[in-house]
Amino acid sequence: GERMVYPDDIVRLRDHSQPGVVGRVCCVESENEGECHVYWLQPTDYDRMERIDDLEVVDRALLHSDTVRELAGSLRCGLVLASDIHVNLREIFSGTEHTHVNTRQLRHLQPFRTGTFVVQDGWLGRVDTWLDDLVIRFSDGAKCKVYSANVQTLLPTVHAANTPYFPAMAVRATDDSVFAAAEWIMGGPVEGRLEGVVETVETGETTVIWTAQCDAQASNDAPDEVCNPATLHPLNSFAHTWWNLMDQGLYRPEGASEARMVELVGMSTTVDVIWEDGTTTPAVPARDLVLHDPGPHSFFPNELVRRKQEGNPAEDTNRPLGVVAMADGLSRMVTVNWIEHGPACEGG
Question: CA–CA separation, 58 vs 12, rounded Å?
């Protein structure tokens, strides 16, 4: 049957033994059915395997074009048209909390996420990995730039699981060689001076997996996989949905003179859904829906279709296109507006 817990779900324990504590599902085990890996939003014992039956879903990450089904009621199936996410935030340095903030008011620390679609020179690709270039400031005013920083040699001085580098983060080098190899902007390396503060974070060398040529005028040869990020154009129209519990970002409260570093400590997602029958429901709580595999004979409004025909596939282009107006999953009948053939008609 369908899983009721998915990666990136926000969950809490059903028995309320951890009141007020929520966690994010990292992955659902395929070998040990009925278990999932959860990162809990708490300082200790935060990384655990949990029984799915012990968990209650608080929020669910659903995105544009996801196919979903109702958990209760008529069990209708539909397509997600839009997502709206509100979050609770905690300022990293002051601990001040902000509730019910729309994610459109937040700014990401990085322009990319793993899987972000990008365009370069007429080619479409997906970001695989990238490196961080950091400007580090020291207590005596010296500054240097560390290229391709990583947590094996430049560590946050406080626990920050799964946290990228961010401005004002205190860091410590494992040895003198880290800063000795840096590009110095002001001052120079000092033996034994291992601690500093991140002043700026820049995206460095980026690896892209190129998937398709999207411009007929583009070269038939894909660009190099390792790219200068300045040459990449991210497709980020849905960037306001690229948030998870425990992510860090920048928030500019109304009236504030500068953006604040914040961590997401709570999430609430609603989605607009168009159902098979053509009706639309706005602001459906995402936790009330599950992902649904539509199968080969399911149709949804606004899909382009052609009447099925046996014979030479090369003749497909001679058959008219239609747009699905509505569908009935029980009778397996659809209403189609044919683009080249007059009024709407029904078909099985």
Answer: 7
Q: Is the pTM of this model over 0.85?
A: no
Q: Are 123 and 136 in contact (CB under 8 A)?
A: no
pLDDT of residue 309: 73
| HSE value, Cβ hemisphere, 13 Å, CA-based, for 23 | 30
Residue 96, beta-bridge partner list: none
Q: Give the distance from CA 158 to its chain's centroid.
A: 25
Tell me the two tokens of residue 290: 């599950």
Neighbours of 62 (CB within 10 A): 25
| Opening angle at CA 54, ends 52 and 58, nearest 5 | 80
Secondary structure in 3-state letters for 254-277: CCCCCCEEEEEEEEEEEEEEEECC
> Closest by alpha carbon to 121, among 203, 206, 221, 207?
221
Q: Which residues pair with 47 in a beta bridge?
A: 39
Q: Percent of the chain scored above 70 by pLDDT?
A: 92
